[in-house]
Specification:
Structural class of chain A: alpha+beta
CATH class of the largest domain in chain B: Alpha Beta
Largest interface: A-B, 51 and 39 residues
CATH architecture of the largest domain in chain B: 3-Layer(aba) Sandwich
CATH superfamily of the largest domain in chain B: Nucleotide-binding domain of ferredoxin-NADP reductase (FNR) module
Shape of chain A: globular
Radius of gyration of chain B: 18 Å
Distance between the termini of chain A: 57 Å
Order of helices and strands of chain A: EHEEEEEHHEEEHEHHHHEEHHH
Helix content of chain A: 25-40%
Number of helices of chain A: 11
Shape of chain B: globular
Largest sheet of chain A: 8 strands, mixed
Strand content of chain B: 25-35%
Number of helices of chain B: 7
Number of strands of chain B: 15
Helix content of chain B: 10-25%
Number of domains of chain A: 2
Strand content of chain A: 15-25%
Strand order of the largest sheet of chain B: 10-9-8-7-11-12-15
Oligomer: heterodimer
Largest sheet of chain B: 7 strands, mixed
């Protein structure tokens, strides 16, 4: 696999060289960094800690059409996300790439999901290693690292004036060959600098959790009052789930406009009461206590019980953006204490 | 089977017959449907207990048990209580109208494991719908099972589903024990709630399996009484229901603990459920 470098000021040339791909890259608008389809390479900025909105919307759009139909008809015009030019997510952070691999388990499970998987198959991931993790990052606690190469096709390191790009898979090589005219070969100096940066970045991670035992123990805390310490101040806004790169729950709705209809799916959240509300009026998760418990238990117990991997990548967004400072690491630590207390009294 | 390339695409079915099982605000209507593309039958197979998303284009889909047994060939049956948006839209349909079916989904009753055993079904209200294919499977495979006892209760005699089939059970030599919640004129059978009917009939747990479906509160007390009668958790089965959207274990909402009712269920043994605190939430 190839190792390349390019001067940071040549970024627009590199992006322009990817003309046969549909390129999505971080764009800062009104202070918010979000992955957008690149219309003008000059808009793209690799100078960000992590995008405010994770790029999960590029695999799992906020709203997407499953199929269209005419009211009264039976013919279904099925959307095919795998169609069209190959896509590149340029500058994805290792945690957000890991989230795709985690959610693959569910979307590939038993009844493969053609929409998610179609996009996955049609998308190349060019990562950007973290040099400066955020205050609430904890990726090493959940199987990641600031420069993890496990879930990307190529990895970039921002070495100051130079970007070092490392091809990791055949798909990554496709990118490398497309941009070959805009890059030059990297040498030992870049490799060494990248390795040093990766180690330094790991050392900058301030928060952590020892997850051992949590998946097994959470179900035993089902009725424990400690959940209320957090759910009592929860506003039920759902931002923790909407901005979570691994949260994947959705609703399905039929939309009718005159005779043109579509069946669409859209992000949903277990933090809303309607999510689990029965038609009878019964709700198995009637308050924010049950919903908070479900959110944490799904990520740290139910999902790993099914798929042997925790559904959290330690990106810290749910902590950063919660309007009432609910902190998932705090909840997890309290869950460990709650269990220890029970053992003492037992 | 479900369209393997895209499990979100429904089949179109035509309503062949439709009739009301029960009256009232929350009336139950049974639909007997057939695929408009008869070739679907070449790949379709379902087992008692399995479900399907039934719906109308332009309105949406909801999950219903397939209330016909596989031995009832050439059609599928669904019994739908009028409750919300989708069920009200389905209730508007009559013979000749089109609806959609997406399935089959979910697990099924482990009837192979139950061979040679006595089977007791304990139903309440619309909960008889998932039990109907079990009963009809056993009727169609009579030599493979021991005694069959059907216990079924509803608020009033009008509220019993599948009324026309009870005499057949008795003629075939099966137990058929009916109940209504409150006494009414000319009702010759048991008066009281289903858990009490169960104690009245007192089936033996020896080499037996009990299957119960109905309102959650009924299931709770039926299970308590089955344990009083000596049934072990492994001998007790029920079906659960939760709100569902995808039916294939992806949209998230129907979980009880780590299990998805749509995919890991709807059929669960009490031995499984008693380990999951959320099961009866």
């Amino acid at each position: 696999m190839g190792d390349f470098k390019f001067a940071k000021e040549k970024l627009t040339d590199v992006l322009s060289a990817l003309k046969d791909f549909k390129v999505f890259a971080p764009v800062k608008t009104d202070g918010v960094v979000r992955f957008q389809e690149v219309a003008d390479p000059a808009q793209v900025s690799l100078d960000y800690s992590n995008s405010n909105v994770p790029p999960k919307e590029l695999m799992f759009p906020e709203t997407e059409t499953l199929f269209r139909y005419r009211l009264g008809g039976t013919d279904l015009d099925v959307a095919n996300p795998a169609e069209g030019p190959k896509r590149v997510i340029f500058g994805i952070r290792p945690c957000d790439a890991q989230a795709f691999s985690i959610v693959d388990n569910l979307y590939g499970w038993d009844f493969p999901d053609p929409y998610f998987q179609g996009r996955r198959a049609n998308t190349v991931l060019v990562g950007l290693a973290c040099a400066d993790p955020c205050a609430n990052c904890f990726c090493p606690s959940v199987g990641g690292s600031p420069a993890s190469e496990d879930n990307v096709d190529a990895m970039m390191f921002d070495l100051g004036d130079t970007i070092y790009l490392k091809g990791l898979t055949d798909r990554g090589e496709e990118i490398a060959s497309a941009i070959s005219g805009a890059v030059e070969a990297a040498g030992d100096a870049e490799k060494k600098a990248a390795a040093g940066q990766a180690e330094e970045a790991s050392g900058k991670i301030q928060r952590s959790i020892d997850t051992s035992g949590i998946p097994e123990k959470l179900p035993s805390l089902y009725d424990h009052p400690f959940w209320e310490q957090f759910s009592d101040r929860c506003l039920g806004c759902g931002i923790c789930t909407f901005l979570c790169p691994t949260c994947h729950c959705f609703d399905i709705q039929d939309e009718v406009e005159q005779f043109d209809c579509r069946r669409a799916r859209m992000w949903d959240t277990c933090m809303f009461s309607e999510y689990s509300l029965h038609t009878s009026g019964h709700n198995p998760r009637p308050t924010r206590k049950e919903r908070t418990r479900n959110r944490i238990s799904h990520k740290y117990s139910y999902f790993p019980t099914k798929f042997d991997v925790i559904a959290c990548v330690g990106c810290g967004r749910c902590i950063n953006y919660c309007p009432v400072n609910i902190d998932i690491l705090d909840i997890l630590e309290k869950s460990k204490q709650a269990e220890a207390k029970e053992e003492q009294t037992a | 089977m479900m369209d393997e390339s895209n499990p979100y695409l429904p089949y179109t079915v035509k309503v062949e017959e439709a009739w009301f099982e029960t009256p009232g605000e929350r009336c139950i209507k049974t639909f007997k449907v057939n695929f408009t593309d008869e070739k679907v039958w070449d790949t379709w197979s379902h087992k008692p207990g399995q479900c399907a998303m039934v719906g109308r284009l332009g309105v949406g889909e909801s999950m219903f048990c397939i209330s016909s047994a596989p031995s009832e060939e050439g059609y599928l049956r669904f019994s739908v209580m009028r409750m919300g948006k989708v069920t009200s839209a389905l209730h508007e349909l009559e013979a000749g109208d089109l609806m959609t079916v997406r399935g089959p989904v979910g697990n099924s009753f482990p009837l192979d494991e139950w061979e040679g055993k006595d089977i007791v079904t304990i139903g309440g209200g619309i909960g008889q719908a998932p039990l109907r294919p079990v009963i009809n499977y056993i009727r169609a495979n009579r030599d493979r099972f021991g005694e069959l006892k059907v216990l079924y209760g509803a608020r009033t005699s009008d509220d019993h589903c599948f009324k026309g089939e009870f005499d057949d059970f008795r003629k075939e030599g099966h137990g058929c024990h009916l109940a209504v919640d409150v006494s009414e004129e000319k009702w010759p059978h048991f008066v009281g709630f289903v858990p009490n009917l169960l104690m009245e009939v007192s089936p033996s747990p020896e080499n037996a399996v009990a299957v119960t479906c109905g309102p959650p509160v009924m299931i709770k007390f039926v299970i308590q009484n089955l344990e009083k009668l000596g049934f072990a958790p492994e001998q007790i089965y029920t079906t659960l229901e939760e709100r569902m959207k995808c039916g294939i274990g992806k949209c998230g909402r129907c979980n009880i603990g780590h299990l998805y009712v749509c995919k890991d269920g709807p059929v669960f043994s009490y031995a499984t459920l008693k380990e999951i605190p959320e099961a009866f939430a």
